[in-house]
Amino acid sequence: MADEVIVDALPYIDHGYDDVGVRESALAMVEEECRRYRPTKNYLDHLPLPASSPFETPLMINEFERIQNRLPMETLSMKRYELPPPPSGKLSEVSAWQESIENSMAQLEHQWVRSLNLELMLDYGTEAWKSYLEVFTAMQAKAQIQLQQLKKDMQDVNWQRKQAQTQAGDKLRALEAHWVLLVSKNYEIETECVELEKVVQAAREQLEKLAPPADNAPTPPLVEQTNGHAAEEESNGNEAMEEDEAETQVQAEAEADENSQSNDGSGNNNEEEKEDEEEKVSNDSS
């Protein structure tokens, strides 16, 4: 997890990089990071040393030792190009003259080889140069093909990255729009709930004002905080009770009329029965 790199920038869809102050802000952040970072001497100790021994030749090893010992570099020896006579103290020695003769013969052989190489170059140098140029041209063409392939691969990678970022941008915008829609709906629902609570509270206060101030009357059930159906059901129940009372009163009046027609002589009894019926109707209505 520590080696993972989370890339949260989408340069193909992000905007604002060219705005005023963005570059200055980025440079200020880099400077702040460089000022706070204090590298230690051993911050590369966890990395292994490069294995250079397979590439070292004896000449390189000797040169590295000379550099490590801080010795001066040896000058180029020109002795083999010179024809010195024997030293003055060895003019009478045959071996000294023999050494000088061998040196002169080596110089002559070297010059002959040089002239031979010049003649061979004059004869075959042109064709060899042409062959070298053909090989070099083929190598150049092969390198150009490899370069074009690398450029194509880079372009494919950039196109794939652009396509992936474009798809991610479309998805992010769709998710953002959906989030905004959900937030708007939640706000509308909260607003409607607040309005319904106000309506229910107003209806409750109105019912409390319209309720009769009877001492012994049973306490009516509290109106639940619903969508307003409780108040409507209560009003429908009151209307049904009023209709039942009206029907009961009509029936009582009809019975009283029948009793009055059948018993004309007993007026007092009819009046008492009528009073009883009225009292019964009043009790039912209460």
From TrEMBL:
The keyword Translocase does not apply. InterPro entries: SPF27. Residues 233-247, 270-279 have a biased composition (Acidic residues). Residues 248-269 have a biased composition (Low complexity). GO terms for biological process: mRNA processing; RNA splicing. Keywords: Coiled coil, mRNA processing, mRNA splicing, Nucleus, Spliceosome. Residues 210-286 are annotated as: Disordered. It comes from the Eukaryota. GO terms for cellular component: catalytic step 2 spliceosome; precatalytic spliceosome; Prp19 complex. Residues 140-206 form a coiled coil. It holds the Pfam family BCAS2. It is found in: Nucleus. Belongs to the SPF27 family. This is Pre-mRNA-splicing factor SPF27. It comes from Drosophila albomicans (Fruit fly). The lineage of its organism: Eukaryota, Metazoa, Ecdysozoa, Arthropoda, Hexapoda.
